[in-house]
Specification:
CATH class of the largest domain in chain B: Mainly Beta
Distance between the termini of chain B: 59 Å
Strand content of chain B: 25-35%
CATH topology of the largest domain in chain A: Phosphatase 2c, domain 1
CATH architecture of the largest domain in chain A: 4-Layer Sandwich
CATH architecture of the largest domain in chain B: 7 Propeller
Number of helices of chain B: 7
CATH superfamily of the largest domain in chain A: PPM-type phosphatase domain
Structural class of chain B: alpha+beta
Distance between the termini of chain A: 32 Å
Bound molecules: adenosine-5'-diphosphate, magnesium ion
Shape of chain A: globular
Shape of chain B: elongated
Radius of gyration of chain B: 32 Å
Structural class of chain A: alpha+beta
Oligomer: heterodimer
């Protein structure tokens, strides 16, 4: 466990076990976001806000990012999760919180932790099955512990050159290049579905009275269908995970403009949250932004 | 504040926190609970015995609905609505509707007592088998369902809309007839929450989200139910209103096009485009049944239709079976044969140019580079011969037969052998550059990419080695890997004798997904438009979504498929041990044409300038114009 604390502890910068001094990192930068000011490294930012109109924050996020160097180094890895809870009596916040835990725990245990083992581990569960299992576990946890509660959940597990995405609900994962932004997840919402069928125009969907109705969410019954897919990491691009408190308020092009005009992912996240609040902040806002360097 | 909708029923028999009544409990001093028939959400159904009939066992079904209303006025309203609905149900009289005997409310629950139906609901019936239901059977049930819906929709003074047509609400009784259960009375007990989409469970029509209930909605839901029964694809696991993305015949080609179009018509997005009434639906079903002659003879007419749009260009006879694959290089076709020869034929005309004799059968595909052709033989040798005349340039001797097709990469030939080594040979002089040992014979063709070599072997081990022969990672399947890997966007795909198609991340060898087939496979996958195509000994050619392992379609041939598919534009070409070369539509898996040869086709075809070339175990090489 110590080993992990050293590597992943958020308070201290990583100390090489052999005690050799490396260039000191600014602890302020490392503390909440683990931004690594090295060239060619993954950089991340994250931010969250209750918004203007809400009194509770029902969103949850989890971020874990690992780098290694050396001859037989571990591959780079990361785990990014965003969940947007729903349901009265605080059940939304509990549902999103326990879902994020359940998912992170399963993925951490059965993928990242396995990487660390010294003897090669065979017979691992395929990553996509693992992702599905993780979300199903979260689902069962919510069904059992938070009746009436539910949550969206979008999880990205990054290992080496690939990301595996697990998704339920209408939080989103986007890929942003210099000039383009596109969502890689598909909203499980009624209006999105009607839009896909050509029954609603995007402008209509944006103001539709039932735009909050989901047809899939964690915690809504024993059988959960999860979208799972794997993509190569987007080189020299950003990946954004966010709740609808961001994408429902700040247009995609504006998100792109903010991200490409920010110095760091953290600055971008802060500005994204500001933009959502400036636009009325009707809902909780969560953003996690990951920059993948060129090869 | 948002709410979602979809609550799938818990698995039958599973209990939940609502506290299901235990066997032995008696309700109203009259109904003895014998067991649970179904339970989920806010309601449970019990098998019970009516104790007012002490001398006989009169079975009943008791449906219990929990009244969750918090304040007394709401509670009262729920009970009143329940009683009104129960009264309505009690007046219905139709052989397909169970009779209502009694109802009552006690404490927080209301109960409906009805006829017990001996049989299974359609959801369970689907779950109890894993084969497709016969078209005839489904049509018979559909017609009966139309009859009972006609009765309900014609009810006076008010039509009764069933609203909840789906497999779990239809039972097949012991006489084989359908019975409608679950008149959605439970709906009264569902707290109406803001934003909740009532009944959006895959079967409901799109207009239901606007709160409309009409006969057209029941028609849609019946269409959805039939779609599920015919395809075995549960619409609750799919996005709403997505039936048109999964045409019935794409999933179950046995179904007639006539029935498919009836189902499609019922599933039209706009209610106006569906059947005008359930009677019209029934008429269409009956005429579909008549047109396909389903009630007269089993259908067998579509097969055996000879291809019109494929034409033989030429064929050439060798002296023994052709099990490997051919290539075309500079207008010349090269193919190895079990008569030990490598043949060179003019690709346009099929005329013989030369043959080069090895001392063993050639089960592999030759490789070509500029002036040299490389061919691996069971005589333990890799042969390099001149492309124009078939003159020997060099041979390389392995310590066992070579059944792996050579791969050329940066001046070297990479080839596996039955001696359990991967051999890397200088392309120009045939000298070994290096070799590396595997756990067993290597029969797959190595993939070389970015200074890494990837190959599987007969022990089920799959290796990634670098150019110094050092193992970077190793993955283990449960049985032999004779299928050759391909790589797409950093992911490796290959099949195994353990009945599985694997997707591995190329950098570390982590498994991303696996896809299980019906038998072992040695076919090497092909990739196109996001789909992986592979053959399998179960006789199928599969198309699998590469992003996740969902099956897009499968096409059943009449024997094992050991060769590999080839994709050109939107066509998939693949041979089968049944002797035919098939051309399928890449998107749907529908057959475009097939071409019969006189023996199994075990190799992979190749395409060159609009012609497709392949060998058959009938000793012949074929060239077809596509
Ligand atoms: N009258 C009956 N006779 C026998 N089994 C029944 C009867 N009614 C319901 N069942 C069984 O109980 C299950 C659930 O019943 P249903 O009325 O559909 O309840 P739910 O509201 O939970 O959907 C059915 O799928 C069926 O298997
Ligand atoms: Mg039911």
């Amino acid at each position: 466990m110590d080993f992990f604390k050293r590597i992943f502890g958020r308070k201290k910068p990583p100390v090489p076990p052999d005690g050799v001094k490396t260039a000191p990192l600014d602890p302020m930068m490392v503390a909440p976001t683990m931004i690594t000011p090295l060239q060619g490294r993954i950089r991340i930012g994250m931010a969250q806000s209750t918004g203007v109109e809400r009194t509770h924050n029902e969103d949850s996020l989890f971020v874990l990012q690992g780098n290694a160097a050396g001859l037989e180094a571990l591959p780079e890895f990361g785990l990014y999760v965003v969940a947007d809870g729903m349901g009265g009596h605080r059940s939304g916040e509990v549902a999103s919180a326990i879902s994020v835990r359940a998912v992170s725990r399963r993925l951490f245990e059965d993928s990242i932790l396995q990487l660390m083992s010294i003897d090669p581990v065979t017979d691992l569960v395929p990553l996509q099955d693992l992702m599905r299992m993780a979300l199903e576990e979260a689902n069962m946890a919510v069904v059992e512990r938070v009746p009436g509660g539910g949550t969206t959940l979008t999880a990205v597990l990054h290992l080496g050159h690939q990301i595996t995405v697990g998704h339920v609900g209408d939080s989103r994962a986007y890929i942003l290049t210099d000039s383009e932004v596109h969502a890689i997840t598909r909203d499980h919402s009624l209006v999105k579905r009607l839009e896909e069928l050509g029954q609603l125009r995007p402008e209509e969907a944006e103001v539709h009275p039932q735009r909050n109705v989901l047809y899939r969410a964690i915690g809504q019954g024993a059988n959960l269908e999860v979208d799972v897919f794997t993509l190569p990491i987007p080189r020299d691009s950003h990946m954004l995970l966010c709740s609808d408190g961001l994408w429902g308020v700040v247009p995609d092009q504006e998100i792109l403009r903010i991200v490409s005009s920010s110095e760091t992912p953290q600055e971008a996240c802060d500005r994204l949250i500001d933009a959502a609040n400036a636009a009325g902040g009707p809902d909780n806002i969560t953003a996690v932004l990951v920059y993948f360097p060129p090869e | 504040m948002r709410r979602t909708t979809r609550a799938l029923p818990n698995k039958t028999g599973e209990t939940d926190q609502l506290g299901v009544l235990q066997p032995g409990v008696t309700l109203q001093d009259r109904y003895l609970v014998l067991g649970v028939l179904g339970s989920g959400g806010m309601s449970s159904v019990y098998k019970g015995r009516d104790l007012h009939f002490p001398n006989v066992t009169k079975l009943v079904a008791v449906k219990e609905m929990l009244n969750m209303a918090a304040d007394p006025t709401m509670y009262e309203m729920v009970v009143r609505n329940f009683e009104r609905e129960a009264d309505l149900l009690a007046t219905l009289s139709h052989p397909a509707i169970p009779r209502i005997y009694d109802y009552f409310t006690q404490e927080a629950s209301s109960y409906l007592v009805m006829e017990f139906i001996e049989g299974r609901d359609l959801e369970r019936l689907l779950g109890d088998s894993d084969t497709f239901l016969a078209e005839e059977k489904v049509i018979t049930w559909a017609v009966e369902l139309c009859d009972v819906l006609t009765y309900l929709h014609g009810h006076q003074p008010q039509p009764v809309i069933f609203r909840d047509m789906k497999p779990s609400n239809v039972m097949i009784d012991q006489h084989g007839h359908i019975r409608l259960i679950d008149f959605g009375i439970a709906r009264i007990f569902q707290p109406g929450q803001k934003g909740t989409m009532i009944g959006t469970e895959g079967y409901s029509p799109p207009e239901q989200y606007r709160g409309e209930a009409s006969p057209a909605g029941d028609i849609y839901a019946l269409g959805a139910t039939l779609h599920h029964l015919l395809t075995r694809r549960d619409p609750r696991a799919e996005p709403p209103f997505s039936f048109s993305e999964r045409p019935v015949r794409q999933i179950n080609p046995q179904i007639s096009p006539e029935l498919e179009s009836v189902v499609n018509a019922a599933l039209a997005y706009d209610p106006k485009d569906r059947f005008g009434s359930v009677e019209a639906f029934k008429v269409a079903l009956l005429s579909a049944a008549k047109q396909t002659g389903i009630l007269i003879s089993p259908q067998k007419s579509t097969a055996l239709k000879l291809p019109s749009d494929v034409q033989e260009l030429w064929s050439f006879e060798c002296e023994d079976e052709i099990r490997g694959s051919c290539i075309v290089h500079r207008g010349i076709l090269y193919v190895g044969c079990y008569d030990n020869n490598l043949y060179a034929l003019d690709a346009k005309r099929g005329t013989f140019l030369w043959k080069y004799p090895t001392e063993g059968g050639i089960p592999t595909r030759p490789a070509a580079n500029e002036d040299l052709i490389y061919v691996a033989s069971e005589d333990h040798r890799l042969h390099a011969v001149s492309a124009d005349q078939g003159k020997l340039v060099w041979t390389y001797l392995a310590e066992g037969p070579i059944r792996s097709s050579p791969t050329l990469y940066e001046g070297h030939v990479f080839v596996g052998a039955d001696d359990g080594h991967l051999h890397v040979v200088n392309m120009l002089n045939g000298r070994r550059a290096w070799r590396v040992e595997a756990a067993a014979p290597i029969r797959s063709s190595p993939l070389v990419f970015d200074e890494r070599v990837y190959y599987g072997c007969e022990s089920g081990d799959f290796y990634c080695v670098d150019f110094r022969g050092e193992i970077k990672w190793r993955f283990r399947a449960k049985r032999a890997i004779s299928s050759s890997p391909i790589m797409v966007e950093g992911i490796l795909y290959f099949g195994s004798m353990d009945w599985t198609l694997y997707a591995l991340e190329a950098e570390g060898g982590w498994q991303i997904w696996r896809f299980r087939m019906g038998r072992p496979t040695i076919s090497s996958p092909a990739y196109a438009e996001g789909k992986l195509l592979t053959g399998c000994a179960d006789g199928n050619i599969y198309a699998i979504d590469a992003r996740n392992n969902r099956e897009a379609w499968r096409f059943q041939t009449e024997h094992q498929v050991t060769g590999s598919p080839l994709v050109q534009e939107d066509s998939v070409y693949c041979g089968s041990v049944d002797g035919s070369m098939y051309c399928l539509d890449l998107r749907s898996g529908r057959k475009r044409w097939m071409y019969r040869t006189g023996g199994p086709i075990t190799g992979t075809p190749t395409i060159h300038e609009g012609s497709i070339y392949f060998g058959s175990n009938d000793h012949r090489v074929y060239a077809l114009l596509t």
